[in-house]
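User: I've been trying to design a sequence by hand for this structure and keep getting stuck. Would you show me what you'd pick, starting by listing the structure so we're on the same page?

Assistant: Good idea, let's start from the same input. This is the structure you sent:
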């Protein structure tokens, strides 16, 4: 089992453990639901981050680190300094962010 999978399982177990409040009033239930949602979101974000780091390490091994996986251009040094695991140059990252924003907006309709 990989480290990312272990962390995800641990976060999911923590979320399940907080499933039932000691007192079943609506405030406690809402608080518990909020905590479970937060734990789940943190787990997903950490899992995604670990996958990105693992992919960056694989690109290092292949000699492709620092090259955008979309366009093949070098990734800007300042960008690599800020986000070393990034697979995209600034322009392609903006394209992906725009696509994600459009998809999120469509889901709200």
């Amino acid at each position: 089992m990989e480290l990312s999978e272990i962390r995800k399982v641990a976060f999911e177990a923590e979320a399940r453990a907080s499933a039932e409040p000691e007192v079943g009033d609506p405030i406690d239930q809402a608080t518990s639901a909020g905590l479970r949602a937060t734990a789940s979101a943190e787990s997903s974000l950490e899992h995604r981050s670990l996958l990105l780091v693992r992919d960056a390490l694989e690109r290092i091994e292949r000699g492709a680190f620092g090259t955008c996986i979309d366009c093949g251009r070098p990734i800007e040094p300042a960008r690599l300094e800020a986000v070393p695991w990034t697979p995209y140059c600034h322009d392609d990252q903006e394209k992906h962010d725009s696509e994600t924003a459009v998809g999120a907006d469509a889901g709200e309709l």
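That's my pick for every position. To get oriented when you compare it with your attempt: The chain has two domains: 1-62, 66-109. Helices lie at 3-17, 26-62, 77-82, 90-107.
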